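Structure (tokenized):
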């Protein structure tokens, strides 16, 4: 027996093994594979249809966008003309009243500044007095912790009361 010519028994058993494997694949694997391929094909067809529909819609939207842009350009020109006319009118009116208004605003600002200055000074004086009282209280507490310091303070206050 040569290497290139198989024996009859080997050929028989290989044919049987191939038949069993082919049967199992045909029974169990091929239907699953074909089902997956068909589902994928349907999915691709659906996506292609959606892409074509989107392309048509985009083309329509682009045309609509061009129309909107053209309308917006015309509207922009009209608005700019109206704005220029309004601007000229407003500038004229503003120049008429600017002098009077400026003087009034400056006078009010000076008055308000003086009032705020006075209020700040009054508030600062009150806060300084409060801080001084608090500091004096803390100093006296610190000094009165000691009994000798308390007695010395009592003597000083008594002397001041007599005089």
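Design, position by position:
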């Amino acid at each position: 027996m040569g290497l290139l010519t198989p024996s009859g028994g080997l050929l028989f058993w290989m044919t049987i093994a191939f038949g069993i494997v082919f049967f199992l694949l045909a029974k169990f694997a091929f239907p699953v594979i074909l089902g997956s391929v068909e589902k994928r094909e349907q999915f691709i067809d659906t996506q292609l249809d959606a892409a074509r529909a989107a392309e048509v819609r985009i083309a329509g939207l682009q045309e609509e966008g061009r129309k909107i842009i053209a309308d917006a350009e015309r509207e922009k020109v009209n608005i700019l003309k109206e704005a220029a006319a309004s601007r000229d009118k407003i500038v004229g009116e503003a120049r008429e009243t600017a002098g009077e208004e400026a003087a009034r605003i400056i006078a009010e600002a000076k008055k308000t500044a003086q009032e705020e200055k006075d209020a700040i000074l009054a508030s600062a004086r009150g806060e300084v007095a409060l801080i001084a009282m608090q500091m004096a209280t803390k100093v006296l507490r610190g000094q009165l912790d000691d009994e000798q310091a308390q007695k010395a303070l009592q003597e000083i206050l008594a002397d001041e009361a007599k005089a």
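Reviewer-requested clarification: The helical segments are 8-143, 147-162. The longest helix spans residues 8-143.
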